[in-house]
Structures are given as structure tokens and as C-alpha cells.
Amino acid sequence: MPDAFQNFVNGSWVDAEQGATFEKVNPARTQEMIGLFPESGAADVDAAARAARKAFPAWSSTPAPQRGEILRRIGDLLTERKKALAFEETREMGKPFAETCGDVQEAIDTAYYAASETRRLFGRTVPSELPDKFNMSVRRPIGVAGLITAWNFPIAVPTWKIFPALACGNAIVFKPSEEAPHSGALLAQLLSDAGVPPGVFNLVHGGAAAGEALVEHPDIDAVSFTGSNAVGSKIGATCGRLHKRLALEMGGKNAQIVMPDADLDLALEGVLWGAFGTTGQRCTATSRLVLHEAIHDAFVERLLEQMQTLVLGYGNDEGVHVGPLVNQKALDKVARYVEVGQSEGATLRVGGKRATEGALAEGFFFEPTLFADVAPDMRIAREEIFGPVLSVLKAASYEEAARIANATRYGLSSSIYTQDVSLAYRAMRDLEAGITYVNGPTIGAEAHMPFGGIKHTGNGHRDGGWEVFDFYTETKTVYVDYSGQLQKAQMDNAAS
Ligand code: UN1
Q1: 283 carries an active-site annotation
Q2: Domains and CATH numbers, the chain
Q3: Is 496's pLDDT higher than 70?
Q4: Which of 170, 327, 332, 405 could disulfide-link 255, Cβ–Cβ 3.0 to 4.6 Å?
Q5: φ/ψ of residue 26, rounded to 5
């Protein structure tokens, strides 16, 4: 019998009302089942949202530094359980063990950062225009946050949202991706073990039905979502209608530019990691390489050579660089984009098909793939593939390279390799993205820096860093008049 998992509501593990389940398998060994998880519906979301609403008053009135103590314990437990969590994460979503250790590390860093922020959560004091009057702004928690995340960073990305939300005094209903439910369950247990009170954090498994019920629920005051553009747009429409605060983070089509003066060894190492790390399944993955024409041909040859050294396999085995895609749907999508690229006239230089030698046949493996002669208007240069497929474009100048990099509706991450300080500063200004790396690949954001994108990648909010604490709080403006008389504000007293 496979393990059967439950939802975590009001401090207890509970079955979904309807009893429906979905199964999750190891994408590297599809015969290996991770477990059965509840396919939750509106009733389950309702129970979780009500529990959160009930827990909110006590949690929000707990002094913030005391909430910080719990966050610090969460950081300690994550540190203790790092390897065990990473092993299970790799089993469930496929990326190599070293990367899942990194994923947990990002959560650890986020926990300690959020813990320390509970001793700040600054408001402002501001002079009044009237005598004997004191003006200030303070932060108030919003209420209950509904958090919906993707599977590719199944510990780190949820915690980018959960920890700041908790630090600010909010209660939470979290729906992990159907492709990473086990990581979500382990995280819920860990939060409970660290002392998060019952009802403050609730976990509801499931797919679109659970997600929609969560976004619609009247007890959910704010929603933060990381995932696809299509789903983000739907959530945006609902939150607009219901006046809910919403943070969206939805994908990218990130470009690395390499100029002729760059350290080319560094640029090569960078693109190999940026494009094929996490099997290209990061929203920050490098999916376009824009090469200056002076170095184009030689760089492509060296890249093709380096790609041969990438070892595909089960991420919990030693020496594996590239894990599987997450499921059959992803495999089909990537294969379809390879056909699209070929029919558009790009040159398939290597890869382009499912990898099936030996044990790879048991998983959703796809060969690292490189397209050359890609034109900026081709679909493989514009649309997010979310797989190990790199499109190479050629530019005659910095200006053309920047134009190509910007020719997409996404705007998450970007990179330029150059030793020319002036060009580096121009790129920092010109590249239309929430993140720009100079002499680094498009992946690898640090937990204490704002993370998010412009254009169709996001809606103006950021995960991570100091800005996320604005998302999880409302500003309350406070005036204290200690003059003992009615003092009219200047605007109400302006006849003279
Ligand atoms: C994502 O793919 O949703 O910067 C996040 C990076 C990671 C985060 C990726 N730290 O590549």
C-alpha cells in the first residue's frame, strides 16, 4: 500500500471530505510511488480558511519578536533536517541532491532573515503640520494569506511567502503544487514541531479546484502565487473582482548576453549552469543566449562540447548534473517546442529528444538541447519552455543584443558578461527585467534580496528581501493630538 497523506488543518492531520486522492510518483523512476494525497475541494479549503481566521487574533497580537523566536526555531529545525528534506525533495521533483540542499538552505536563510525582521518591521514618525500633535505610520498584519506555489523550489519558494507572512502576524492557508505535495507535508510538520500554534498555518493539498476555492474564499485577504502565466491571469481576475491583495510571480524567458571582451570561460560555465541546472525548470533559467557575432561560432562549439559532459540521472545518485523533467506533460511540452523550433527554421545542434539509455528510460528525461540560428521573433525565442532547451541568437552590437534580450513579454532575470564597466552599467539600466546579473548567470537569487519581475512576469510585488514585508502588512496612519483642543488640519483651515 502506498503512503496516504492528509491535509493539515487547525493543528491536526485530516482527510479531505470527499476522499478523492491523486498520486505522486518519482519523475526519475516512475514506478516508484511517493504517495497518495488528498484531492481537496471547497469544503476542505473552507475548514482551513476558518481555522486560520480563528487563529489570527491571538497570533497577530503576539509580540512580533516572539513570533521571531518561532521562526528561529524553524530555521534550526530546517538546518537539522536539511539532508533528509533534500533527499525527499529530490525523490519527488527530480533535481539533484546538491540543488535540493540549496533549496532547503534558501529556506533556512529566509527563516533567520524573517526572524530578525520581527525586531524591525519599521513604521515612520513624521512631523505634524500642527502644534502638539504626533504623526506616525505603523504596520498591521492583513489577516489570512492564501499561498499557492509551484513545484520546482518546493521548500524555498513557499517559505519566501510563509515566513514573512508569519513574521508580520498573518495566518496562512498554503496549497502546494500537486507535483510537490510531500515537501509541503514535511514543511507543515516542521512548522508544527517548531511551535507554530494550531490554525496559524494550514496546508490543503489539491489542484485547480482547491486553488480556485482558496482564491475565492471570503476569509482569504491576500493571495501570493508563483506559477504559470495562464493561472496567474485567472487568479488576477478573481482577486481584482474581490479586491484582494495579490502578488504574482509567473515565469521568464531569460537571456544571457556575452560580449566579445567577456571572460569567455566564465560565460561558458555560467550558461551551462543557467540553462541546464534544474533541467531548465526554473523561472529564472537561461533560455536564450545572445552572443556577439565576433565570438558566436567558437563559443557555440565550446558550449556543445561542454554539454556532452552533463550527466543525466536520478538526482539522489552521485555525480548527476541534470535530473528528469517533472512529468509526462512537461516532456510532451518540451518535445513540442523542439518541433516548433525546427519548423520555424532554427538549427537543432544537439539533443531534441527524450533520453532513454539504460535506467533513463524509467524516468521523464530529456536530452540537453541547443538551437542555433534562432531569430528573435521565433516562438522558441519568446515563449517559456521550462526545460533543458537553449536558444542561441546572434547580435552585431550591444544595442542589438539588448534589443533582442528585451523582445519578450516576460521580464524576470537577465545577464551580461562583459569586462567593460560602461557596458555593464548600460545593461543594468537597459535590460527590461526585475533582476540583472553582471558576470553571473540568470539563476541564483539570494534570499535577502527582492525577487520578482516586470512586464508579464509579475504585478509589481516582490518575494524575498525587505520588500516582501510591505506585501504582508497594511499601513495604518495614526495621528495623536495632545493639544486638548480641536485643531483643524491645514486643508480645513485654509480660508486665510
Ligand atoms: C523559481 O524558479 O521560481 O534565483 C525561483 C534562482 C532561485 C529561485 C528560482 N533562487 O534561480
Answers
A1: yes
A2: 7-250+458-478 (3.40.605.10), 254-438 (3.40.309.10)
A3: no
A4: 405
A5: -75, 120
Using CB distances shorter than 6 Å, the residues near ligand 1 are 106, 152-153, 157, 226, 282-284, 443-445
Ligand 1: atom nearest CA of 443 is 11
249 is catalytic: yes
Alpha helices in 19-152 (DSSP H): 42-61, 64-80, 82-93, 97-117
Q: How many helical (H) and strand (E) elements, i.e. helices and strands, does the chain have?
A: 15, 19
CA angle in degrees (0–180, nearest 5) for 420-371-425: 20
Of 279, 473, 261, the closest CA to residue 386 belongs to 279
Closest alpha carbon to 320 in 477, 90, 158: 90
Alpha helices in 168-263 (DSSP H): 181-193, 208-216, 229-242
Query: CA 214: distance to chain centroid?
Result: 19
* Cα 440 to ligand 1 centre (Å): 14
Give the tens place of pLDDT for each residue, 380-410: 999 999 999 999 999 999 999 999 999 999 9
pLDDT > 90? residue 490: no
Place of cell 538526482: 315
pLDDT bracket for residue 288 (50, 70, 90): very high
Contact 239, 260 (CB under 8 A): no
Give 16 Cα–ligand 1 centroid separation in angstroms. Answer: 31
Closest atom of ligand 1 relative to the 435 alpha carbon: 4
Question: 88, 178, 179, 283: which one is catalytic?
Answer: 283
User: Which residue is it, cell 541534470?
Assistant: 322
Q: Give residues with Cβ within 8 angstroms of 320, minimum separation 6.
A: 96, 311, 312, 313, 314
